[in-house]
Amino acid sequence: MDYYSYFSFNWPGVIKDTLTALCLHEVIYTIVITTIYMKIMNKNTENKLFDFTIPTLIVGMGSTGLSCAHYLKQRGCSFAFADSREELSALDDIKKKFKPLVIMLGDFNYEDFKAYKQIIVSPGVSIRSEIFVLLQKQGCLIAGDIEIFAQVVNKPVIAITGSNGKSTVTTLVEKIAQECGIKAIAGGNLGIPALDLLATQSDLYILELSSFQLETTYSLHTLSATVLNVSEDHMDRYNDLDDYRSIKESIYHNTENAIVNINEKITLERVIKALDKGDENYNVSLFGQVVDKQIFNNSTLQKNSYSIVNNEFLVKGNSEIIQTNDIRIKGIYNYLNVLAALALLEPLQLDQQKQIKAINEYSGLPHRCEWVAKINGVEFYNDSKGTNTGATIAAINGFELDSNKDSSQRTVILIAGGVGKDADFTELGKVIKQKIKSTVLMGIDSALIKTCALNAGAKNDSLYSVDSMVEAVSAAAGLAESGDLVLFSPACASFDMYPNYMKRGDDFKEKVAALKSELKHAS
Description:
CATH topology of the largest domain: UDP-N-acetylmuramoyl-L-alanine:D-glutamate ligase
Shape: globular
Number of domains: 3
Mean pLDDT: 88
Structural class: alpha/beta
Radius of gyration: 24 Å
CATH class of the largest domain: Alpha Beta
Number of helices: 20
Largest sheet: 9 strands, mixed
CATH superfamily of the largest domain: Mur-like, catalytic domain
Number of strands: 20
Strand content: 15-25%
């Protein structure tokens, strides 16, 4: 198969017609350099090759750091370790397996680090801290595992980022490609670390990339790339939403096909700006939700854009691809994920019937609006992966689209709360007021969500506070009536009560199963 059989795209016409259709009569371009460190990073690291012949420091001894160590060991590159933790349970095993030059535990020390001309930093470590800014000023290469991957991979790469939905799109792209006969594998921020993927000798690599990974990636060349969406997340690590968005949008640098969500107007404007200025040279394909199909009457747009029509079917241009009733993963946000996956794979010109078959069979990922059980006519869904407000709002919208219903007519009982990561819950408060029948809150920042919901006009007697998962499930079940659904979508991280969102989601499912068993025995 010729993986580089690309489609053509008449960009100037797309700019004109798309902006006209969106009623953007005056496009104001506001690309801002957000921090000094970005200048330093770009100046000192762009086009700088990693040297496998000199000692390297790996910062972070989690799964990513150990993956890097394994790869460097294969390449005969000597390395040292550093980790901010004072103690590591697996330290003895790590020493035996890798025989590092040295292991530095505890607070990072500039004097120790400056001895290394290249440092691989794990995503959990911020390169905006003073020590890394100083090292970058001195010409030290600060890179992540994705950058090392980028410098050695010799097969096509598809890259996906976004505040929400990237794991779904990544695994869906993998499934579709495999169904179409391509030896494809997915990883990166999801599942297998990027460098470990190379051992599979696949013909197509699909990478889910977080903003943290993109901060340390400079030369990744991709067949296609997308920013699915942008909403507040990790505001404890970024200056503001625009800062966070700019990091996400760096995924378009050096791609051959930019896949853009037409509903993300700021990102769309910036993609146009980069192309008009000659800073980028990519083809563009659009995906998104449109109510009026006439928006795509331009022939070029008809040919190259993917959209949802009347929430009933997905189309490419004016050609129907699949009806939403045939898709197992429900909700507008999931239909957008399907569109994004199709657009990302468009350059490969795959068999459409095989793509549809793969989409029909795809049942989604655990902890992402995952159906759990039906108890006394009430459906329970686990969306523990909803760790920010955008994800939870998308989940709510997927189940309840009518904002005109009064509270007695609504069907969604929401369970939310946890560690808010300095997020603003104002928009979630408005959605709770507009669309949620009752809300059960738990976790360290539950009071913040409650305050925002009250400020938006939600009634105090529709908001309930609990201290544990068992109490949350019990309270939600008591508030629900037959025909309702209980949606566990926290809008927060889990670290106040659980080690990760998976354990949190598993606990929710266990408590629902226990409730079902209890009621069964009681009857």
